Amino acid sequence: MNKSGPLNPDEWETMKSHVKFGAKILDPLTPLARIREMVLHHHEYFDGSGYPEALAGEKIPLGARIIAIADAYDTSPATALTRSAQGRRRPGGTGTMRNAQFDGTIVEIFVRTLRALPNPVIEVATTTGPRNS
Asked: In this structure, are residues 17 and 9 in contact, taking their beta carbons and an 8 Å threshold?
């Protein structure tokens, strides 16, 4: 959707349907069944409040949990707004949403991996906070 401002309830439901459309496109490609599940569930939240099936924790396919973090990092307005002149990013939301929206263990691995790159592409605004372990 190319809309500025918040979505109304009907628009929100339309937007959420993209995971089902993506999975349906992959239906006939049976060798990609695991990838289909990742596409379908990449908006499930670790605390169970996501969509389309409100899966929680490790019931969410591992690949979908990884895609969720990468997708949020890539598309977050906070990420885009906090890029420094060196092209670094600060996914503050990714760190602060661990164990709610995201799998906290994967967030830690994601941040640690990006920081370990020869020219780090990430500065984390905050990765501290309450852990719901």
From this structure: no
Alpha-carbon gap, residue 36 to 64, rounded angstroms: 10
Q: Is 5 exposed, middle or buried (0-12, 13-18, 19+ CB in 10 A)?
A: exposed
8-62 tens-digit pLDDT: 999 999 999 999 999 999 999 999 999 999 999 999 999 999 999 999 999 999 9
pLDDT at 123: 55
Amino acid at 88: R
Confidence at residue 73, expressed as pLDDT on a 0 to 100 scale: 83
Q: Are 44 and 53 in contact (CB under 8 A)?
A: yes
Closest CA to 39 of 52, 58, 30: 52
- The sign of the torsion formed by the CA atoms of 98, 104, 106, 111 equals positive
Whole-angstrom Cα distance, residue 82 to residue 105?
A: 24
**Which residues are registered as beta bridge partners of 102?**
98
Give the phi and the psi of residue 98 in degrees, each rounded to 5: -65, 145
45 in Cβ contact with 101 (< 8 Å): yes
Tokens of 16: 């959420």
